[in-house]
């Protein structure tokens, strides 16, 4: 975490010009300052947030593992090797995370599971962000009846028992496939973003720069999406990371209950579901490694979200 | 921002608008609020010739800004309502234009700069981007060309190293610099009229003088008409040719700036001038107009200034119109200017001249 003094420190970045190159014209004694846009400033603040950087490293490692792991890995996550040893093997040099009772490699299951789990979390986050931003922007900018209608829809989403709807939807529309599950998660988690975006639009549309843009003849649609929307992106991105983290947990949970991804595909939830009977046998590695993968990823994403919250906060001018 | 006023039936241009760029007639803007109706602008008349300058002076709540926002049609309706009046600009009544047509007027024919330079620029874009966007909004030029014009505009408003300035973000500029950017943006499409709503109020005094100097200089060079809204008499005295003094939603006195400030023909203007501290009054108590601005829900009958007016008499129970004094340019909304009130007018002038002599020295 930053110390308060660290954050208040005035920092001026002198443009990195090659030595010998004139900074400016004759007689101009101004120091050339590097103009940093919002994102560059945010990245500077983010880098100072140590936990967020740790989170970013862990999360990046998880992504790389998900992408490249299954390609270089010799084991097939679904193929049962044949020689079944009841209870499976504990972690060893050949099987880093051990094997399950059908002889499948747990490390392989974790890596392949990362693909589905992260995809479910990430893509459902994007759907939630997309729908939430559009709904929130319309409600907040147009106001009146549109606002009323859209916000009542949002209220309905918050009023129904979320888990129950997820389980029912996953069973009846999901059929164990990945894409429907992503859609279900995404289409159920946008209301949070919509409320946030609406609230920000309501306050931003009263800002003078919006009036100035209107006075310059800019159209309503362009003001909403070109002028106001970029100002809302910081908080939106932060809450999107939180949605991603919670949807990864949700996937594990739904799959664990056998309402989610089909058993013949590997996700972290399925790996946990597999392991539920074996814990009493003392085969801790079946549940431990997929569980750790979930926990690490979610914690990493939450750290990133925390770092983004500080980095994108316009009031912290580091 | 949506729900703008439906276009009323088109009217014929009035005959006397000839030669005028702007002719606001009997404009009334009301706000419907929970407690009733606030008549923020209640019968405003303004005239402005092409390339000339008009200052609108008045205290807070006198309706100066609402007049400007009504002209630009920037008020949200409801709660606002244009109850009456016409705004003839360049041969068209702005109140009858469609939203689409009005958007073509805003920023293109009429540009506006606001009071708060700190918040009038979008924090997430470079100033060059914002000026270039204003250019591209109304002129069909390439992005590159718009960018070059942005650099030119920044150069025009006297900022150093324009090529570098345009790449900066608003948070990197001071208040004065941002107001210069706002001026650059406003003038980038060569408007016929520039409305400046308290452009220097948020700036410190040394910067105020620079910005006023800049506005006046650019106004003369580009031959843009200027409507300067301010509560500061010294600002108008230095910047504009004509002046309209507003009180309680009406223009109470109008004329050439020297005429109005040196021989005010309305007791309110005279009171305003009298309350300026001056050398002669050093050590004495500052004079003020007695009483307060009337409650918008309980406006006095007749002349709106009569409860505070030292020259008030029975005739003030009836509201006077704008009475012309020796020509259409010089007008005052006071019964003292009625031709038959010679005796009272002479008494007023005697009292007024004494105080003006005090102020001017």
Defining traits:
heterodimer, A: 318 residues, mainly alpha, 11 helices, disordered N terminus, B: alpha/beta, 32% helix, 20% strand
Describe this structure in words.
The complex is a heterodimer of chains A (318) and B (361). Chain A is mostly helical and 318 residues long. Chain A has eleven helices and no strands. Chain A has helices at residues 4-8, 38-48, 50-72, 106-142, 144-159, 162-174, 178-204, 208-215, 220-256, 268-275, 284-312. The longest helix of chain A is centred in the middle third of the chain and has 37 residues, at 106-142. Chain A is elongated. The relative contact order of chain A is 0.15. Chain B is an alpha/beta fold and 361 residues long. Chain B is built from eleven helices and twelve strands. In chain B, the strands form two sheets. Chain B has an eight-stranded mixed β-sheet with strand order 6-7-8-3-9-10-12-11, with helices on both faces. In chain B, a hairpin with a 2-residue loop joins strand 9 and strand 10 (250-256). In chain B, helix 3 runs parallel beside helix 6, helix 6 (175-187) packs parallel to helix 7 (205-222) and helix 10 packs parallel to helix 11 (342-360). The longest helix of chain B is centred in the last third of the chain and has 19 residues, at 342-360. The termini of chain B are far apart. At the A-B interface, helix 8 and helix 9 of A face helix 2, helix 3 and helix 6 of B.
